[in-house]
């Protein structure tokens, strides 16, 4: 999923300053899972902003709404009936959600309330970790299901670096050494010899070499 | 002190708090009128920052939660979660320039348990020493 964190309230208030009627728009998918932009967080932020406005004698109206997915047109379109009531939308979606709403309602300013962080996993309650860079050329088979690009602090395809101690990364002992994890898993599968391959530098063209990426699936289109 | 009785308190409490049954809740609300809003919770771990914030926005000069004693939660960690959520709420209040003390937690004592009525009185007395909240919806007493 895509992870995000809320921007500081001060920054959000600065961006909202020119507007009087705001729709705080949550997203019920990834950012709800990482407790940044779901229905609860949207209500929380809207409440805080209304109180801040009241304390500063500002004439500000904030309503709340949460759609299931801010990055899918079929869900965004449900704003058609209400969007005209507002000067701006405060989006608690990820960067993709903010832009999808912007594209749909070109005449309405869409303000991001979150900083989008990374593709990650919910490791535990309240604990999310990055484990995918979205490189466009998945090599998880080669590395026993542990991505060295995302999880090795040095992004080494030909590791280990030799600096880890007791399975912890020398960059930060809180980080498990990705190469230790890779070797442990490959050993368990009896596939250590796969690591004898020398990998050439990653071809990043599939991630960022040709401008914004897109996926077109004709079988999924109308 | 002359207008301090006009302070309002939203009080969330775990149902494990001694003598906190429905009859007691009704009696307290009747005695204090609009100044006290009581919200029983099956467990204080159910509390979210949004509950405290909404209370501060709509009905109360202060919003508090009473939990059962540490280690006595029937769901094991509800009161620990409540503490963290009050801390989070206080951070939000600080970020908007409101005194963080307007949200708080009172943890019940194993050794000297107090009833809901006693705790309500103690917390309300403390709230009455605060100024009226500038964040509370206008038009309220």
Strand content of chain B: 15-25%
Q: Low-confidence runs of chain A (pLDDT<50, min 5 residues)?
A: none
- Helix share, percent of chain A: 25-40%
Give the overall shape of chain B: globular
Oligomer: heterodimer
Q: What's the main sheet of chain A like?
A: 4 strands, parallel
Q: State mean pLDDT of chain A (0 to 100 scale).
A: 96
Radius of gyration of chain A: 22 Å
How many structural domains can be distinguished in the coordinates of chain B? 1
Number of helices of chain B: 4
Helix/strand/pairing class of chain B, anyone?
Answer: alpha/beta
Tell me the name of the CATH class of chain B. Alpha Beta
Order of helices and strands of chain B: EHEHEHEH
Euclidean distance between termini CA atoms of chain A = 27 Å
**Biggest sheet, spatial arrangement of strands of chain B:** 2-1-3-4
Largest interface: A-B, 14 and 17 residues
**In CATH terms, what is the architecture of chain B?**
3-Layer(aba) Sandwich
Q: In this structure, how is the largest beta sheet of chain B organized?
A: 4 strands, parallel
CATH fold field value of chain B: Rossmann fold
The chain-level mean pLDDT of chain B equals 92
Structural class of chain A: alpha/beta
What does this structure look like?
The complex is a heterodimer of chains A (222) and B (141). Chain A is α/β, with parallel strands linked by helices. Chain A has eight helices and seven strands, in the order E-H-E-H-H-E-H-E-H-E-E-E-H-H-H. Chain A has helices at residues 9-16, 30-33, 39-55, 73-76, 95-104, 148-151, 178-188, 205-208; strands at residues 2-6, 21-27, 61-67, 88-91, 110-112, 114-124, 127-132. In chain A, the strands form two sheets. Chain A has a four-stranded parallel β-sheet with strand order 3-2-4-5, with helices on both faces. In chain A, strands 1-6-7 form a three-stranded antiparallel β-sheet. Chain A is elongated and about 65 Å long. With 141 residues, chain B is α/β, with parallel strands linked by helices. Chain B has one domain (9-128): Rossmann fold. Helices cover 37% and strands 16% of the residues of chain B. Chain B has four helices and four strands, in the order E-H-E-H-E-H-E-H. Chain B has a four-stranded parallel β-sheet, sandwiched between helices. In chain B, strand 3, helix 3 (78-95) and strand 4 form a beta-alpha-beta unit.
């Amino acid at each position: 999923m895509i992870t995000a964190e809320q921007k500081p309230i001060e920054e959000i208030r600065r961006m909202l300053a020119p507007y009087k009627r705001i729709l705080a728009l949550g997203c019920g998918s990834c950012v709800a899972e990482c407790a940044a932009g779901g229905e609860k967080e949207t209500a929380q932020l809207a409440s805080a902003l209304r109180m801040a406005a009241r304390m500063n004698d500002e004439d500000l109206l904030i309503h709340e709404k949460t759609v299931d997915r801010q990055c899918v047109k079929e869900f965004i379109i449900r704003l058609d009936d209400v969007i005209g009531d507002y000067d701006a939308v405060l989006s608690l979606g990820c960067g993709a959600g903010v832009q999808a709403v912007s594209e749909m309602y070109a005449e309405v300013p869409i303000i991001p309330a979150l900083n989008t962080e990374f593709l990650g996993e919910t490791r535990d309650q309240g604990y999310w970790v990055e484990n995918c860079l979205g490189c466009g050329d998945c090599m998880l088979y080669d590395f026993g299901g542990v991505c060295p690009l995302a999880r090795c602090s040095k992004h080494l395809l030909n590791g280990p670096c030799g600096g880890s101690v007791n399975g912890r990364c020398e960059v930060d002992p809180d980080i498990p050494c990705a190469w230790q994890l890779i070797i442990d898993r490959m050993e368990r599968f009896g596939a250590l010899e796969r690591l004898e391959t020398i990998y050439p530098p990653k071809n990043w063209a599939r991630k960022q070499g040709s401008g914004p990426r897109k996926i077109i699936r004709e079988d999924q289109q109308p | 002190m002359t207008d301090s009785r006009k302070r309002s308190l939203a009080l969330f409490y775990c149902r494990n708090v001694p003598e906190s049954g429905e009859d007691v809740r009704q009696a307290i609300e009747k005695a204090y009128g609009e100044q006290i809003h009581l919200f029983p919770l099956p467990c204080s771990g159910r509390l979210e920052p949004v509950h405290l914030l909404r209370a501060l926005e709509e009905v109360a000069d202060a919003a508090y939660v009473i939990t059962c004693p540490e280690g006595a939660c029937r769901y094991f960690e509800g009161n620990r979660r409540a503490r963290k959520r009050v801390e989070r709420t206080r951070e939000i209040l600080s970020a908007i320039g409101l005194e963080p003390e307007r949200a708080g937690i009172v943890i019940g004592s194993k050794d000297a348990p107090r009833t809901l009525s006693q705790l309500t009185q103690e917390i309300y007395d403390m709230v009455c020493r605060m100024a009226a909240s500038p964040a509370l919806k206008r038009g309220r007493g």
